[in-house]
Please model this.
Amino acid sequence: MGNLFAPAKPLKEIIRENQRLLKKSIRELEKEIRQLETNEKKLIADIKKSAKANQMSAVKIMARDLVRTRNFTTRFIEMKTHLNAVSLKLQTIKSHDAMAQAMKGVTKALTKLNNKISLPGIQKIMAEFMKENERAEISEEIIGDAIDDAMTEENSEAEENAIVGQVLDELGINLSESVPAAPGSKVQVAEEAPAEGKKDNIMAEMEARLNNLNN
Model:
């Protein structure tokens, strides 16, 4: 009755016990096979000896024993082969059980991980990331455009000054002597005003796009 209430053995323990019994049986069979092979060699030697002595009756009896010994050897080898196959089958079951236990552990780990992860939280983080990334790209684009415009204006002004200087040199006119200082200052102020207005427009555009993202 005590065995009815005993806890069930785990599969790993059952497989280990059966493998132990199989290995023991295989060792015993190997021992019997070696003994039969030794008897076979002895019978062959005795048959040759009796044949040389012309003892044919003894030769026939020992020949019958030799056939019987070889048959038993064949049967034991077959039994050993079957036991090895059973042992391999148990090893396969053991491997499958180990794989199932590993998958069970991985499943538990994935379940805990999924319970800790909040999909709405991840979606919120990704939305904020995309928003901030877009803001950074817009800021970079506006700054790049402003730099390109500034460089274009500087290059154009330098090129224009070079052309004017070349023309005046060909005409033999000195710009500082022929052009009064005051009008020149007014022209310079008038030229600087549109540039400053353009920069203000760029800054206003950048602030408007960033405000739209914040909203």
In short: Residues 177-193 have pLDDT under 50 and may be disordered. The radius of gyration is 51 Å.
